Amino acid sequence: MRAISLLIVLSSTIAIVVAAGQKRPADVKELLGDKAAVLEGPDRVEVFRVGHEVKPADARAQIAGHLIKSVAKEQGKDFAGRLATVLVDPKTYDFEIARACDFTPGVGYRIWKEKESAEVLVCFDCDAIKINNHIIDATPAARAALVKLAKQSLPEDKEIQALTEQRK
User: DSSP characters for 69-94?
Assistant: First the structure.
């Protein structure tokens, strides 16, 4: 029982330290910053399976600092619009909490509008989104939408296909 109590206290302390160490944006506009224009009418999306963060000197292919494990079929305007709708919705993000989680994204998107792009990573382990160098927790409704999009864009990936819309 003491071990469980200690673990709870330790987990809470880590969550507070993580939250204090990262400046959290106040709203979606601040989160998106200069990438907001890309998400207004994007025309295509590159889709990637990603792995752990890579070192700056690592020459392997990467997106937003994470290793690209595989490249999926590029998605068109319809998919880009649905993904952008989720990403610009204030109800997607929970700005009030910071989970004590090691951000390990599984899916990466490079969203294009003409010649400009924005890179987005999604971690389904802790339901967090990295956009414009901010890692923000996603709401349960956002998880459901992002799982559907991931499954659509990575139909051959067994791990992605096994994801559930509700966190277990």
Answer: EEE-PPB-HHHHHHHHHHHH-GGGEE
